[in-house]
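R.M. (postdoc): so does anyone remember the format we settled on? I'll just put the structure tokens first.
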């Protein structure tokens, strides 16, 4: 049998914004997988429901789960221009998470999110 530490680490990122009805099911679907060498990163983007509470509860039970409570990307529209403002503390959290896990998946998700926000 292969030891899980011999397998490559896989990063799974679940972005969340006000999805408390579905979050537990999504987390459970990751936890029941047979591949065990993974980290689950739950990125809460300023939810006003119980999403962050649910994510934190799971993180307390399983050390493979990390929760990032990020400030939302704020999109401000005006007559002149569309301005995308990313709160600096959220960017610092992203960079710290990427450095801590050396996660290509997380880096790709962040790049995609920034590109999508800039395209708006």
């Amino acid at each position: 049998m292969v030891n899980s530490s011999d397998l490559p680490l896989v990063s799974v990122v679940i972005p969340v914004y006000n999805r408390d009805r579905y979050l537990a099911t999504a987390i459970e679907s990751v936890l029941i997988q047979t591949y065990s060498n993974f980290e689950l990163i739950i990125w809460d983007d300023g939810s006003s429901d119980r999403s962050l509470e649910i994510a934190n509860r799971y993180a307390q039970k399983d050390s493979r789960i990390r929760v990032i409570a990020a400030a939302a990307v704020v999109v401000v529209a005006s007559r002149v221009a569309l301005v995308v403002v990313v709160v600096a503390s959220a960017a610092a959290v992203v960079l710290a998470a990427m450095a801590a896990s050396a996660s290509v998946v997380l880096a790709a998700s962040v790049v995609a999110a920034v590109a999508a926000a800039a395209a708006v």
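R.M.: ...and that's the designed sequence above, right after the tokens. Also worth knowing: The two ends are 49 Å apart (CA to CA). The chain has a mean pLDDT of 72.
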